[in-house]
Write a structure and sequence with these properties.
This protein is of the alpha+beta class. The chain has a domain of about 50 residues. It is built from two helices and three strands. Strands 1-2-3 form a three-stranded antiparallel β-sheet, with no helix packed on it. The longest helix has 9 residues.
């Protein structure tokens, strides 16, 4: 509870992140999620935000905005 109060006041510092992740391409091309990410990224283990990652400078970049997946409609049977 104390963590959530401090997080709401000051925000997440993104100190704990995953190892840099680079989605690999599948045989049939890229998936929608991998294509939207584009390249290497890291994810914050505390808040779940994803950030671009630059291997040359070994630093986190801008936060990534992942578009919502397209909605699939159910076929109507009459």
């Amino acid at each position: 509870m104390l963590h959530s109060i401090v997080d709401s006041l000051f925000g997440c510092g993104h100190q704990r992140t995953t190892f840099p992740i680079t989605p690999r391409r599948s045989a049939a091309g890229t998936s929608a999620v991998a294509a939207s990410r584009g390249g290497t990224y890291v994810a914050c283990l505390d808040c779940g935000k994803e950030f671009e990652y630059d291997w040359k400078t070994m630093r986190m970049g801008e936060a990534m905005s992942i578009p919502a997946p397209p909605r699939q409609t159910q076929p109507s049977f009459r």
